[in-house]
Fold:
Amino acid sequence: MATVIAKSDGEAPARRWSWPRGSRLGRLIIGLNVLALAILVIGALVLNELRSGLVNARIDSLTTQGELIARVIDQAATVGEPEPALNPYYASDIFQALFIPRSQRARLFDAEGKVLADSFVVADRVEWKVLPPARKPGEQDEGPGEDPVAKAKADRARKALDDEVSQALRGTMVAGTRLSENGERVVSVSIPIQHVRAVLGVLTLEAADVDEIIAAERRALLPFILVAITATLISSILLHRLIAEPVMRLARAADRVRLQGARAISLPDIARRNDEIGDLSRALEEMTHSLSERMDGIERFAADVAHEIKNPLTSIRSAIETLDLVSDPIARARLLAILQNDVNRLDRLVTDISNASRLDAELSREAPKVLDLVRLLAEVAHLYEAQLRPGEAPGSVRVRVFSPDAATPARLMARETPIGQVFRNLIDNARSFSPAEGEVRVSLNRARGRLVITVDDDGPGIPADNLETIFERFYTSRPKGRAFGGNSGLGLSIARQIVEAHGGELKAENRTDTSGHVIGARFTVDLPEARE
Structure:
């Protein structure tokens, strides 16, 4: 069956710089980035700590300034003994002579809470506000006192100022924030003017520049906020295009493999990327390619199995059809022997096919571990010495193991059961070709960090054209005189598959003498030695 490649040519082209509809990962990337940025922006705009620090700093500044002014007024404008009093004329003159910044407002109150001086009046400062809309002809002028909201605000501001002055007249300095008559938030400090213990008046200093400073700080942050928002949106869109969209394409390609029966994933533009997404794409391509090859192998294996099983079934059917027509006892016995041989052959085929089909599962089920190959080969050879194969005479074929240093373990990282099956299959194959009273020699050597195991026999050797063919499934070539169907042809194929699964190599060659004559066959297993 031909391999079908799932290509991305038929995909609709992605729209550039569009909101990632259908991409939950893309929306999550953009949402989290914007949320984190929004938290920073809101925190910068609120500026609670900066505002609190500015208020405290302004209170300290106004307190220092007010105490100085109050001390000067106390020393220069206090009259009367033993009951002191504040001379309003001297106090006003001193108040006018002192410098009051335009961003501040200073007011002087007497002991009754009446205003003696106001810096806005001294500096001819005019308080302004937005005028109401122009009246249409015939409409009555409602006047400023008719606006209930403005009137309520003004009343609250005057009451807050009166409360602050009253508290200061009791000899306590008052500092904090309140609303002025025009609705601005101001930092206010009210300092009592005391002579000894008598409170002669109150000096109130106000500063309304805190909100202006905060607004200026916010305006200064706006360019940086805009740059941060732009950078966040660009990075979010790039992350969406570089991560979310490729993952979605890989998911759609995987769905095509699952739903449409495609055999492999092919997204070259993603696979060329030198990052984790490229690694994922290449891994998926290799995985699906490996699965495709395995499926092809399973199909070929099924076809081979059907062909191999069909032969003995055909022979059995022919013998059964002929059996009723034969009356000669000798001929009937011969047909029954053929039937018995074909049944045994079919049973052997089914057993070997079952073992071959379970090989991949066994290789994945058993975890590799460090084995002593010298010990393993000795145990395999001991099995052939302790148990004779059915129908064999004692001492028919000997199995000997040679190792240059049996005391030094040959460490191999492998699965014990499958790797033991490799050597049993090779020894069985060598014994089947060895002459009576022959010998199979298993040798172990080390070469450049590799373990090299050879299995030699004294049989007729292997035809030069069949040195690779013998590893194909169901291939068998027996010497003349051997019973037909005695072997399934799967032993060497299974052995090579196990060796390759362990990162090794299995090959066959002929042994020759000095004159070039073939004196037997040799199978060589090359496996990596485990590092300590």
